[in-house]
């Protein structure tokens, strides 16, 4: 009975994995076909022979995605660094500092999670337009680099679960709040920080609407906007579009592969608590 249940579980998980991975694998397979092969062969047929001309066109050819890729990496690095620093400081303040209205401020801030991003799109654009930051690098990153309600909530709950005895021992040794945060809280919260890093990086790597609104032209074009423009410009050349899509998702797979152990550990810690 137990063996049968285990077999059924693994079969269900394998089927789910196939459903999830099939679109990406088909995208990779299509990206190494020529337009003629794509038109003449069945969609699931492997390329005979495979070709790298689509990737060459997107890296060294006339439709290179290297500048948008570089800009996207810069945007993600600045936003991730800003969000982690600001979220850690805010979460520690909400979790371990006593000041008037602390809980009320936290819950009001957390309530902004229910406000759709589209609802604040126009006011945000007007503010940045008045500040002269439209179609600039800082216009892309500033609205997102000062923490997020989800990250602050997750870190606050984790900081509140740290035993008070550890903080008291650090204070007996003469540590103030900066040293407690640096030498006690941050080492304990590495799995949670890794998870937040992944979530923030994926969210802003795939961000499309805000960069599309706040920028124009190719100067500050991010990867998602460049791939969308490529798709509308070469709607019939699906092999080139699939190669661009594959290139856009590969860095995220590498990032997840590097930090997957920390993500699993953070889930384990959350479940134990």
From TrEMBL:
Q: Per the record, GO CC terms?
A: plasma membrane
The family database entries (InterPro entries) matched by this protein are listed as: MetI-like (IPR000515), MetI-like_sf (IPR035906)
State the annotated membrane topology for this chain. Multi-pass membrane protein
Q: Name one GO biological process term.
A: transmembrane transport
Is Membrane among the key words of this record? yes
* Residues that span the membrane, as ranges: 7-26, 69-94, 106-125, 137-159, 180-202, 238-259
Keywords attached to this entry: Cell membrane, Membrane, Transmembrane, Transmembrane helix, Transport
The places in or outside the cell where this protein is found are: Cell membrane
Where the record annotates domain ABC transmembrane type-1, the positions are 69-259
- State the family named in the UniProt similarity comment for this chain: Belongs to the binding-protein-dependent transport system permease family.
Q: What is this protein called?
A: Sugar ABC transporter, permease protein
User: What species was this sequence derived from?
Assistant: Actinoplanes cyaneus
